[in-house]
Amino acid sequence: LSPQRPYLAGDLHRPRYHFTAPQNWLNDPNGLIHWRGEYHLFYQHHPHSTDWGPMHWGHAVSPDLVHWRDLPIALFPDSPADRDGCWSGCAVEEGGLPVLMYTGVCAGEQRPCVAVGSQDLLEWSKHPANPVISDPPEGVRGSDFRDHSLWKEPDGWWYQVIGSARPGQGGFLPLYRSLDLVHWQPLGELLSAADLPVGSLPTGQMWECPSFFALDDRHVLLISAFDESVPGKLAYTLWMSGRYRDQRFVPQRVEKLDGGNAYFYAPQVMVDTQGRRLMFGWVGEGRSAAARAQAGWAGVISLPRSLFVDAQGTLCQRFVPELQALRGPEHRLSLAMDDAGEHALPMFGRAVELRLRVEPQGANQSGLLLACTPDGAEQTRLVLDWERGQILLERGRSSLDAEVERGDLSAPMPALRGGVLDIHCFWDHSVLELLAGDCAALTVRLYPTRADAEGLALFSDGPVHWDVQLWPMQAIWD
Ligand code: DQQ
After folding, report:
1. Which of 22, 84, 291, 434 is disulfide-compatible with 425, CB 3.0–4.6 A?
2. Within 13 A of 333's CA, how many CA atoms are on the CB side?
């Protein structure tokens, strides 16, 4: 159990301070729990190939949300209720025991299942009563009944919602309650697509990976909206904030998380002993199955972000301060550009943290070039479009490999504070995570092919002032 990752020679894309599986496929974060002082991360895992397949629950533990140690696989698809896969779910503590609620898949049918753990979270016993809910609600296909969010209320009952859909009518969340996590009573619906305010964003045919929790003075619901029937497939995460009353959630805001891009999907939220709500997401691949197979690994877990809700009910995110432990020596720079121009930043390789305080003083567009070759043949452009009120990530030239995804991503520009936009970004080889002004976020994969695609530069088409902090980041893997 050593914290190693088998780097293949020339793998320019494997992150050095993000969590990836030791090898092969990873998708959704599962079962996040702060247990006896340590953070446990489980994840959807196919240990036998770099493609999605019969799902297992991979497992890792961290003392600090930064350094991770691999633990043995927690769930195998090896019992009658889950012989085709142990799909996403969560972890809770009940009566001093760790309990996993996951989706058992058998012959295409998805049902809630329970596993009870040992105190060290290494041994898991599947409950003999699995599946613990034998049928989906009326009108719901057994292939649209998966993913779990659980919470305990002061009345002593456990409540859970399950990602569900009614054919042709879209997603909804049936609500259940239980005293022992094994016997569940149906209660109605927490929310359905029909309840959303008129004109809300599309939420697809199926709501995956719900996460429902109290935050500050509101309740927040995350869902990953999924629809294979739309051209190009719809897969993105939405956040909603609102009120929870009489076992119904009334959303007041419905917005895209991470700009509505598919690279931050199936997030899950946990609470730690400091009372923080911490969110991890799955950062998927943008390269071919052959490229994944050659690399020997696929899928990344995002850096942890702590959540809060502002006075307008906006869901805001910040990278956890623990990540500062990985910072190397700081490089600081204050720069006034009076006119159009470009300014190279020092290069520290592909594992860096950047904080930018940007004050537009007449420019229409300013931005950051990153993962640039000296001749500019490969480069990714982060464009702050002050005029259109947009943050754009242009990937058209991010890779010379024609096979990788190179589409642009965008997020709305948040309101400037005192005329300044705060940007916080982590670049780790093929992963880029960026928060702007607390509430705008973009997460993306980049696959430059050249070993010299390490340049960073600021640019602008007019007057702008920059305050830059830049740190090389230490690796968490040997
Ligand atoms: N991934 C899991 C499902 C979930 C989907 C299967 C979301 O439980 O709906 O690997 O990425």
Report:
1. 434
2. 19
